[in-house]
Design goal:
single chain; AOC barrel-like; 2 domains; 55% strand
Length: 225
Amino acid sequence: MEHNELKFNGRYLFQILSGPSRNQVYSVNIGELGSIVVFNWAVRDGPSPDAKIVAREQGLHVHGGHWHNSFSLVFENERFRGSTLQVMGIPDPPIPGEWAVVGGTGQFAMATGVIKKREHELRGDYRVVEITINGFCPKLNSNQKGPVTKSGLWGGNEGGERDIKEVPRRLESVTIRSGHAIDSIAFSYTDQYGQSRTEGPWGGAGGTDHSPLVFPSLIYAWSIV
């Protein structure tokens, strides 16, 4: 089964324990063991409180010897709106530490992975934690076609136009034959129904073959550091 890789870097979790803007409260407070805290933490695209909210961590702490987290990471940005990651683990200590991604919905259906976290700022009851998400989710077969946008042609008016026969989903590889210039190009792709297809070579027979440029499964990246 093919998988998509998830890489979300440079996101910041805002935890506010008290005051008018607090985003977590006790629902059961009996000291430690058995206590429950419910939270709705904002996840922003920068460490500033004015940075854009891209997701929310919504769930609870339960104290059972350690504080245990179980929550949904609910995405609010335009690209992933409504998709979720299901997360579990021990929140702190330690910082830095990790949570486990144990599932997902929408674009992240059946996701698995890990969320790494480290403290960025701690000021009284106000904490900012930097989080990094790494994981995978399987490519689920679907007969629903995604949106495709065609751009071009670019260049001169010579020669004839060539195009692929099926609506594409993902480019898999490109093979170029060249000398002093590109003589021909061939490529493989996956169509909207998950079938692998090839096109080309288009062009002349001059030059020499080069090793195919192979593209990995789709990678989602918020930022690269």
